[in-house]
Amino acid sequence: MSGNGKVDRRGFMKGAAVAGGATLATETRVRAQTAPAQPKAASPSAAQQAMENDPPGEAEKLTTEKTGSDFMVDVCQTLGLDYMAACPGSTFRSLQESFINYGKNTKPEWLTCLHEEVSIGMGHGYAKVAGKPMAAMVHGTVGMQHGAMALYNAWCDRVPVIVFTASAGPVEDRRPGVEWMHTVQDGAATVRDFVKWDDYPRSLQSFSESTVRAYQLATAQPQAPVFITADGKLQEMELSKAANAKLSIPKLNHPTQAAADANALREAAKMLVAAENPVIIADRYARTQQGVDDLVKLAELLQAPVIEARGRMNFPTTHYLSHWERSGPVVAQADLVLSLEPSDLYGQLNKMRDQLERTEGPKTKAGVKVISISTHDLLVRANYQDFQRYSPADLSITADGEASMPYLIEAVRQEIGDRKAAFEARGQKLLAAWKGLADRARAEAAMSWDLTPISTARIYAELYNQVKDMDWALLQDGGFQSNWPHRLWPIEKHHQFMGGSGGGGVGYQPVAALGGALAHRDAGGRTPISVCGDGEFNMAPHTLWTAAHHKIPYLTVVHNNRAYHQEVMHVQHMANRHNRGVENAIIGTTLRAPFVDYAKVAQGYGAVGIGPINDPKDLGPAIAKGLDAMKSGQPVLIDVVSQPR
Amino acid sequence: MKSHILLLAAAILAGPAFAQDAPKGDAAKGEKLFMADGCWQCHGVGGNGAALTGPKLSQTALPFEAFLHQLRRPAAEMAPYEAAIVPDSAAADIYAFLKSRPASPDLKDLPLLQGMGVK
Question: Region A128-136: what's the mean pLDDT?
Fold first, then answer.
């Protein structure tokens, strides 16, 4: 705001106080009609001009030791946030300066990102591994628009990220031009449909209480991102000792999560014990290793097969009750389905054929009973349709799956009675069916062993061979690589797998991998691996710069099929449907002519880049070299020219 | 999946009447068509299969009639290929190519894979 404005405002306020509205209107009109004075002599310098128009005077204060943004840092520091990820933006300039100087750049440490989709998306991956949220700060309006898709993915995946944006203050405090472009009346309007809570606090005390509330809401089940706008004027206003002393920061509540009510669990236990062929499907169920261990207990108690829906790491792939590879026949034979935290209960029980006429049908047999334990219904919005199709259940229990599990186990124990022998017999059958699964997976992996382009099975076999004695952790879902991680790798620990994107927004993989790798780095001694499609990688290759800059080591293997391959298949399907041949389906879907050299891209961002690897025989040595480079704390990329899936 | 098997079974049952008429295909041409018609995008180069997009076709055990039936009336998710796009003769070439594919490497010779698998 120019000094001119300040002088005018003071006079203007005085006039208003004395004579009310009439004077106010007159003064404003007079000011607007006065033509600027013409220069008579040689043009004065800008500084001179400024002095003449608005002499600062000895009295004007130009610096201060404390501003509102310092207090905002105090608030964030009480929450124990380890990181604040941001691509710089002037709307939060005061806050940024307070974090790095006043806050000493610790807890949270400021992380430099090169796009807001990274700032938010890395928080998505981080929270799933660390079990707690980190924060992101995005520039007013434009930064928020950049970050929106990452926010949507985190929302769909029910993962907490604490997101701050900023906005210039009221009109009299906005410089003409860009500050108006980056100011928004209702900063959250664009993203309100996919955050759990938002606020634009109008005082520092409001900022304090809203930020603590936001953190608590974000981390309560069902978890989700939250969005706070830090007003520019509040950030930059001088904060006197007296005013600061009046401010307070509430203690953060750590509420217990909602477990299911005892009657509902008793009923569920009765149904589970009575069923001949119960099946358990687990999607976004386990948040912790305890959740995994409890599910193993329940499955063993019932001798029931578990289908891993891969929203999280729920159940060890090495357990003989892990039957997701047989999910078709297992679900078809089930007389009872227990679904834990499904993101799509309807889709677990039904299918729809994607042909010119869409036809649907159940995956289950008639009369199947369905129990769901889920927080799904606690967080549903109207606009975006991520809530999926409505699906009836015989017993729909609205509660947190993991928190309810110990009570369900106890209820089943109470009901088991004389069913033990029958359960044992069922377990033996499941063991026999399970035994063939690994042979089948190995035989299928062998089929394409020597192929060029390199098969995805070979990628996973070569990788595993070299990391098997390390504390490895996968950062990708693996669905686009024919599910080889779940078919061939012994995923036993919760931290070894973190699920997928949630919302299917392309670009999740490189950004969530960066955040996941950060959490793994802090946990110590882990080897994080991200097998990342080339289409995904191209959305945020500069994640490697952030990783190199902040010394976050992980291995990115580009599954380079030189296409947005899912879309190749879609467009081919349409070409077939329209009887026009598939010849042109590569237009707009493939990444050829020229090929992208991902190793060079990585090197350009300061990471170690290896490849392109075309010959399957070169893959092992390339991985060895990459793992070696990671030991010195560097991010590494290996470009593997691969089969489509 | 169930309906897929049933449909193929129906095709096989209907098959014998035409079985002798299965046209002789040209494997070399078939390899080109397998790529040009985009079969590889879902079934992998060489038709070795991918778990989520298309099953193994290499050394297919299907009779030609069932093979052709799958192109014209896919069991489930596969995009249909009408005769205008893949004539019967081209289908026969692709079929010949798939039949001529070498056997997969033996697991015995792949020590890396032997150590794998979670069970």
Answer: 98
Going from the C-alpha of A575 to that of each of A132, A562, B5, the distances in angstroms are: 46, 20, 26
Residue A481: give its domain's CATH number: 3.40.50.970
Q: What type of residue is A224? A: A
If you ran DSSP here, which 8-state letter would residue B107 be given? G
Both tokens assigned to A586 = 């590569």
- Residues of chain B with Cβ-Cβ distance to A617 below 8 Å are none
Q: Which two tokens mark B12?
A: 């096989």
Distance between CA A487 and CA A504 in Å, rounded?
22
Q: CA–CA separation, A117 vs A156, rounded Å? A: 15
Structural domain including B53 reads 2-114
- Does residue B32 lie in a domain region? yes
Same domain as A578, residue A614: yes
Q: Are residues A71 and A149 in the same domain?
A: yes
Phi-psi region for residue A223, left (φ > 0), alpha (ψ -120 to 50) or beta?
beta
Interatomic CA distance for residues A372 and A271, integer angstroms: 12
Cα dihedral A531, A536, A541, A545, rounded to 10, equals: -50
Which pair of tokens denotes residue A309? 């829906």
Q: How far is CA A28 from CA A24, A99, A166, A335, A626, in A?
A: 6, 40, 30, 78, 69
Per-residue pLDDT tens digits for A201-256: 999 999 999 999 999 999 999 999 999 999 999 999 999 999 999 999 999 999 89
Indicate the DSSP class of residue A495: G
Judge if A472 and A429 occupy the same domain. no
- Give the HSE-up count for residue A111: Cα atoms under 13 Å, Cβ half-sphere: 33
The whole-angstrom separation of Cα A94 and Cα A643 is: 49
DSSP letter string, A78-136:
HTT--EEEE---GGGHHHHHIIIIITTT-SSEEEE-SSHHHHHHHHHHHHHHHSS--EE
Query: Does B82 sit within 8 Å of A449, measured CB to CB?
Result: no
A544 in Cβ contact with A605 (< 8 Å):
yes
In a domain, A561, yes or no: yes
Q: What values do phi and psi take at A11, rounded to 5?
A: -60, -40
Per DSSP bridges, beta strands A306-308 and A162-167 are unpaired
CB-CB under 8 Å, A332 with B58: no
Flag whether A408 is in a domain.
yes
Residue A479: its chain B contacts at CB < 8 A? 52
Query: Does the predicted model carry a pTM greater than 0.95?
Result: no
pLDDT of residue A5 exceeding 80:
no
Same domain, A623 and A494: yes
Question: Are the Cβ atoms of A317 and B118 closer than 8 angstroms?
Answer: yes
User: How far does A452 lie from chain B, in Å, by closest CA?
Assistant: 8
Annotate A174-204 with DSSP letters as a single string. Answer: --SSHHHHT--SSTTTTTGGGSSEEE--SSH
Amino acid in position A466: Q
Phi, psi for residue A482 in degrees, rounded to 5: 55, 25
Of B29, B31, B36, whose CA–CA distance to B46 is shortest?
Answer: B31
State yes or no: pLDDT of A4 exceeds 50. Answer: no
Say if CB A326 and CB A437 are below 8 A apart.
yes
In three-state form (DSSP H/G/I as H, E/B as E, the rest C), the secondary structure along A563-596 is: ECHHHHHHHHHHHHHCCCCCHHHHCCCECCCCCC
Q: Whole domain around residue A274: which residue ranges? A: 262-378+386-434
Residue B119 lies in a domain: no
Per CB-CB distance under 8 Å, the chain A contacts of B53 are 482, 569, 644-645
Q: What is the pLDDT of residues A24-48, one digit of tens each?
A: 444 444 444 444 444 455 555 655 5
Query: Of A339, A452, A358, A447, which is closest to residue A401 (Cα–Cα)?
Result: A339
Contact assignment for B46 to A451 by CB distance below 8 Å:
yes
HSE of A336, CA atoms in CB hemisphere, 13 A: 18
**Cβ count within 10 A of residue B111:** 9
Which is nearest to A82 in space by CA: A133, A120, A117? Answer: A133
